[in-house]
């Protein structure tokens, strides 16, 4: 031992730069960049561990979700009370955000008072600590003459780790720093505060939000800087938070948008991850702390411990004779005698050495100037390590944000607070320099929170209030779209009544129930080549269908799709049919069958009154069509005339069918149980096989029909592909005809007015056929986008969306195409993509906006699906009762872009039909080749009879 003293004595005599010996002594504390990068990488791994549901429980860095989903966006306003507990000073504040007199535009006014917390309360009973807090609050209200009657929203900054499931609830995970009040760990500290406020009484305070001081600091700085997505505290304790992508936070529902995560990085190392950087002095500080083994990184970094680290180093060096000639004073042996304020003082540019001498003399030491230089350097190394470790942690967070946002470089601001950062003369610049050295490609700005974190806490509360009120207002706006079981039951009943009424009355009925003169579904005997023309909702298709001997599968089908320009849809009838004839001509050229003179079936997806299979008088246009001189005319004649006018080819139009009927036939070719056709596309409609006897309005025709059809014989039909097509004997006897219900007209008599919303009324009034097709306008692709647009307009006018800016784009009819609904609602689509879809429409949106847009789309499309489900339940139950069955198995052939492409429409429709018609087992069979094949089948059947 003596030898050591001897050597060091001579050593010092050599007038070596005293800092050198300190550098050697504290070699382990002097971290260079690749060590910092290593620590940063370790911390990133810890962050991933904390975020993942599997490893969160074991993670030392807890990555606590804060339920703060957005940084300030400038619309926050209100008056709030705030409590700031957990830092070096407990403060009570009143914060006025953009409200009240004299608040400069966009400004915040704050009045605050600091209340000391008696030491014993820090380690006493939790209830007493919170009583002190609420009594301080009451005192503040008195002192600042704030009315005790008025209900005050309160923001609570609580600077300890809490597990939160909402903004206004938080279970204390553990105390840290110098707090260790009993009975609160694992308890909801917001509830504890509410109870304390109730115990104190005489004030009406509503705790709306509780936030960690890092979060409040981020929000405070975010008020003036939209790039502030990180909050950093380097004070008594240390910690950081940042805006993480919600999809990475396993512990929180949803993957849309972002949420602030309180990393609680103070605990980094609690699982030994930093053991190779821990020095004996760190172990001593930890062993002497009130939470040994916990907050390892915090004890290497934060203000509560730096002074102590310096003291222990200086003490050890003195004992080793490296300082003060080995003289050690009791003061130097005493815990806490060197504070972080002392460390900061020692490192002051000008007076650092002087301060160091004074501080050491206060510790009853007589330092030489070299001693002072050495001790100052100890402070430098200890505080430098602190800022370096913070830099490593920040680098990890900023790197993760860069990766989350797939950016090569990121511009970001870090909001900072804390006494150590604020009062240590060199801490900020050292930190900034190292972060910029470790992350050269990032543009990192540090914003000092100049007025504590309560402004931020108030903003969180304002956001909470705004989100809560927005949530309430959006729910209010969307609640009429959320139809209850009872309402759907009513719609089913009204649909049933409409079906019955339509079958009876000759005159106009809302549900027209148009006879299709199709008496049976295909039986597989159909043969030959047919042309099918398909005028649907959005385009025209020409198809060549060849039914061959043997397997159905080898039905040959060629087709070509043609768009129908708007001006043709809404031009003259002649132009429309000339356009169709031109398309047919082009198709026949394409197929090289100009002179084939083929029998053709014409799928015409509009309501037509038919008196036979090959005539159809258009009752009224629907969807986007408004061609003149068509309504009340026979569309087959109009097509024939157009073909004649063209005089290039000839067609034998044998049948005209509605697309629902064509779809039913197409699917019945695959599944003989298919007796219903459903279209959920641009328009919506359903047809089904009704018992002839129920089609009263078709009485007189019956004889003629029977004559034509001849009562169909029952029994089996052997097909030449050997497959037996079971002709269901039972219902064989009952002659049927397919009825095109045109259910789109339900409600035209006001029977749906109790579910029609003002948005629907707006859409109806702006449509080509106001007052008509009310059910269709609630359920089909032509209109859903417009309903969504009307709702978005209303929400934007209410300031709930797009920052209240009603842009030209949003006012443009048709801009929100229904296909966007399908895209926006797809589960696989992250919010960013929703935003880019909105971008395509010329709508700039925030994360929150797109969450709401998605919700509106969901509400509108879900209503459409459940309404169609209720309508379908009415149809299948009617068929079941027609056949006097307790249980009906039936298949529905379906087509239409909404049913086929929307991510949820089909399953919601099916589920609703199942629930509302429990005695029917309904299979939905999407049609492969559209209704064209069905039209060809009907043509084949019609030809067979000729
Ligand atoms: C001031 C903030 C407070 C935070 C404190 C941290 O208003 O919320 O806890 O900074 O720094 P400290 O006071 O612990 O140095
Ligand atoms: C494809 C059918 C056609 C029908 C259309 C409806 O072949 O007859 O009109 O589906 O779907 P939409 O094109 O309106 O989405
Ligand atoms: C606490 C954190 C807090 C930090 C800064 C730490 O001891 O665990 O919740 O943010 O101190 O005050
Ligand atoms: C038409 C129906 C058609 C449906 C689906 C409705 O607008 O009135 O005839 O079946 O659209 O295309």
Task: Describe this protein's structure.
This protein is an alpha/beta fold. It has a domain at 46-250 and 409-471: Nucleotidyltransferase, domain 5. The chain contains 34 helices and 28 strands. A 6-stranded mixed beta sheet has the order 1-11-10-9-12-13, with helices on both faces. Strands 14-26-23-22-27-28 form a 6-stranded mixed beta sheet. Strands 4-3-2-5-8 form a 5-stranded mixed beta sheet, with helices on both faces. The model is unreliable at 709-729 (pLDDT under 50). The chain binds 1,5-anhydro-6-O-phosphono-D-glucitol (2 copies) and beta-D-glucopyranose (2 copies). One 1,5-anhydro-6-O-phosphono-D-glucitol binds at residues 84, 86-89, 157, 159, 213, 216, 233, 235-236, 303, 417-419, 452-453.
Nearest-angstrom radius of gyration?
39 Å
Please estimate the helix content: 40-55%
What's the CATH class of the domain at 46-250 and 409-471, please? Alpha Beta
Ligands (ions, cofactors included): 1,5-anhydro-6-O-phosphono-D-glucitol, beta-D-glucopyranose
Termini gap: 122 Å
**What's the CATH H-level homologous superfamily of the domain at 46-250 and 409-471?**
ATPase, nucleotide binding domain
Query: What is the mean predicted local confidence, pLDDT?
Result: 91
The general outline is elongated
Strand order of the largest sheet: 1-11-10-9-12-13
Tell me the number of strands: 28
Contiguous uncertain segments of 5+ residues: 709-729
Q: Tell me the β content.
A: 15-25%
Biggest sheet descriptor: 6 strands, mixed
- Briefly note the structural class of the backbone: alpha/beta
What is the CATH-assigned architecture of the domain at 46-250 and 409-471?
A: 2-Layer Sandwich
CATH topology descriptor of the domain at 46-250 and 409-471: Nucleotidyltransferase, domain 5
Question: If helices are DSSP runs of H or I spanning 4 or more residues, what is the number of helices?
Answer: 34
Protein name: Hexokinase-3
Subcellular location: Cytoplasm; Mitochondrion membrane
Domain Hexokinase C-terminal: 230-463, 675-941
Pfam family, one: Hexokinase_1
